[in-house]
Amino acid sequence: MAVAGLALLAIAVALEVWTTAFRVPSYLMPAPSSVIVRLVRDAPVFASETLVTVSEAAGGFALGAALAFAAASAMTVSRALERTLFPLAILVKLTPIVAVAPLFTLWFGFGAAPKVAIAALITFFPMLVNAFVGLRSVDPQELAFLETLGASRREIFWRLRAPTALPYLFSAARISANLALIGAVVGEWTGADRGLGRVIFVANSNLDLPALFSAVLLLAAVGIAVNAAVGSVERRVLHWHPITLTA
């Protein structure tokens, strides 16, 4: 992490020297110092827009993860449902988000609903696949032992399958949480009056690159924070698992 920070600092210093020495116009490449100044000057605005995007992404992630877990659970107990739902899930995965985002805006309006829906859509597939694999990856001996004790399907699910799936779910959450951010931004880009996606769209239209880079920098910071938060929760919940013991 420290090495990555030093590398980013070196890149920022090099860009600052280059843009200053060669007088690069700000509408082509803003100096890092001008981006920082813009972030500080308009901090309340950026904070408000970031909160909008994070709220939409969180709602979409929660919705997509819940639907994915429900679908994976159904597929686990029924081969017929697996053969029915999995091709539909692949179809969802292969659908270009940029293509359907304007449709979602048309159907659900310019509020938060289409952004949440897009974030849920982009979250759904990785959560579904990992949940399904995790629910199926039970120890045969442990499964046979519970069946010998006369455990019901519900008891087997909650006492064996769900705990076994947790590492897989957290692995997917690391990816899907950041994908939800991308989905929210895409939704804001195609039709919204709030959010970092809207900031990027307006800044790009006005060639206001300091504002554009400020929004991108905030998105990157949020993504890093989300990944760290998921990792922290994973270590607390799965403190017994070998993955977290060696992390």
- Element-level helix/strand string: HHHHHHHHHHH
What kind of oligomer do you see? single chain
Helix content: over 70%
* Tally of helical runs: 11
CATH class label: Mainly Alpha
DSSP summary, beta strand count: 0
- The shape is elongated
Separation, N- and C-terminal Cα atoms: 14 Å
Descriptive tags:
247 residues, mainly alpha, MetI-like fold, 11 helices, 84% helix, elongated
Topology:
Blueprint: H1 2-21, H2 32-41, H3 43-77, H4 79-94, H5 97-108, H6 113-136, H7 140-148, H8 153-190, H9 196-205, H10 209-237, H11 242-245
Summarize the structure in words.
There is one protein chain. 84% of the residues lie in helices and 0% in strands. With 247 residues, the protein is mostly helical. It has a single domain, classed as Orthogonal Bundle (MetI-like fold). Helix 3 runs antiparallel to helix 4 and helix 6 runs antiparallel to helix 8. The longest helix has 38 residues. The protein is elongated.
